[in-house]
Amino acid sequence: MALCATPIFYTDANSSSPLGFESQLWAAADTLRNNMDAAEYKHVVLGLIFLKYISDAFEELHADLTARRQTGYTDPEDRDEYRAANVFWVPPEARWATLKNHARQATIGQTVDDAMTAIERDNPSLKGVLPKDYARPNLDKMSLGRLIDLISNIRVGDAAGRSKDVIGRVYEYFLSRFASAEGKKGGQFYTPAHVVRLLVEMLSPYHGRVYDPCCGSGGMFVQSEAFVEAHAGRVGDISIYGQESNYTTWRLCKMNLAIRGIDGQIAHGDTFHSDRHPDLRADFVLANPPFNDSDWRGELLAGDKRWVYGPPPPGNANFAWVQHFLHHLAPGGTAGFVLANGSMSSNQSGEGEIRRAIIEADLVDCMVALPGQLFYSTQIPVCLWFLTRRKSPLAPSPSGGGLGRGKGRGTRDRRGQTLFIDARQMGTMSDRTHRVLTDDDIARIAGTYHAWKSDGRRPTDDGGHLAAVGGRPSAVYQDIPGFCKSATLDDIRGHGYVLTPGRYVGAAETEDDGEPFAAKMERLTAELEAQFTESARLEQVIRENLTRLGL
């Protein structure tokens, strides 16, 4: 394929617009596939992009230190200079220039492996994280060299690239493409960014401890940090905790966070059987656990202290995840997570009793029904659950802010109430099989939730979120038939503890055109008869034409 002769820069001032080179980079990466499936070669490609990023950042600082060396106060080969600037130290054999110079040699695979090993050796936080299997026989070395040449033309880690989050957006693009290529397996490491954004916008994690016990590639953490920055907060105000059972996905998460400068305590291990954060009480839980997981070995956890609301069935982990989230929730905490729609109504194997106990404990704050085709891993529609221990304004604020203090000020007493939002008709098709939630969709859903929680003394409880009423922003919540309904605990009891939003929001109102029913039926019947007559005439014309043609 043709390669760019000059460096590729991102120049569009709109940081949300496409970078312009993603598809070209993807095409080059795709030539590596051959006998490898997406689950393997995504680590090959993302590992190279990661290496380019840290090398760019290193070379920029190295050049600055070299320029200032004449003052006698700096040494470009002093590792402490890089640690002080929060830049990874890249040893000479791992610098991108070395890879580029060897890109067309048959030994390029081993050269990359040696570079990865050297970086892990000199940066303990990356130990065991980077891929080191580029010398494998089934990895075409000519294609690998061409990919290195192309990546060489993309500035991802210098100041300009970091300011526009070029590396983050390249990673996001590749993660989504790999998830699409892997199909069902892709859902194990990637949650579509627009779904994550909706969760984050609704939870508003301004400060406190953020926990994802099935963190995949770390998208929940990335969006949480982005939310804080977008609302003029301080990234250091949130602490990140996570766990991932799949080792290769855990490595992907560590790289994804490292390229963005996000520091978090991300553990590897089975969350149910080897909880690596046993004493954590999180202010916010964000998660997209595996749907309807039947292979979680639940029979080994009978009597576990987490099953406060009832023992989850061994054949389905949905309510094991729900109770794990609640177990780790702080006294003033809130959890937002994705589950299959069946979780809202299933009564099999005791699931209905668990759901009933959670409802009676008044923990369900909001339920959102989403449209289908949002995920790469499944075409079935899913829902969002929001559980909270903070329905009362007097409940503790996140991270020990005291009673009724902090960002939660302005929330009303919601005890005994739950908001239902039916968003099944929202979103737009991005291609033949996938739907995405637009910025307006996310704003309307999240704004409705924040307005519902507000006590009316200020527009919202978390700054700037407004409900959408009739398509227009409004600071005052109101029920909208077909879209949202504030229900009481008695309402939910009346529906047999089923949490499906459609049962509560009802049908959308239709505009009355003022035509009496009898007159409308007479008019429509006459129009139908006329269409029948015209259809018969056209049929006769067609038959006569066919006869003249001898058919």
Topology diagram in text:
Elements: H1 22-30, H2 38-67, H3 79-84, H4 96-101, H5 108-122, H6 141-152, H7 159-163, H8 166-182, H9 193-203, E1 208-212, H10 219-230, E2 238-244, H11 247-258, E3 265-268, E4 282-287, H12 318-327, E5 329-340, H13 351-360, E6 364-369, E7 382-388, E8 417-422, E9 428-429, E10 435-436, H14 439-453, E11 467-469, E12 472-474, E13 484-488, H15 489-494, H16 502-505, H17 517-548
Parallel strand pairs: 1-2, 1-4, 2-3, 4-5, 6-8
Antiparallel strand pairs: 5-7, 6-7, 8-13, 9-10, 11-12
Helix pairs in contact: 2-6, 2-8, 2-11, 9-10, 9-14
Architecture overview:
The protein has helices at residues 22-30, 38-67, 79-84, 96-101, 108-122, 141-152, 159-163, 166-182, 193-203, 219-230, 247-258, 318-327, 351-360, 439-453, 489-494, 502-505, 517-548, and strands spanning 208-212, 238-244, 265-268, 282-287, 329-340, 364-369, 382-388, 417-422, 428-429, 435-436, 467-469, 472-474, 484-488. The longest helix is centred in the last third of the chain and has 32 residues, at 517-548. It is an alpha/beta fold. It is built from 17 helices and 13 strands. Helix 2 crosses helix 6 and helix 9 (193-203) runs parallel beside helix 14. Residues 1-19, 183-189, 401-408 and 458-474 have low confidence and may be disordered. Strand 11 and strand 12 form a beta hairpin. Strands 3-2-1-4-5-7-6-8-13 form a nine-stranded mixed sheet. It has a two-stranded antiparallel sheet with strand order 9-10. A two-stranded antiparallel ribbon has the order 11-12. It folds into three domains: 22-183, Up-down Bundle (Ferritin); 189-505, Vaccinia Virus protein VP39 (Rossmann fold, 3-Layer(aba) Sandwich); 517-551.
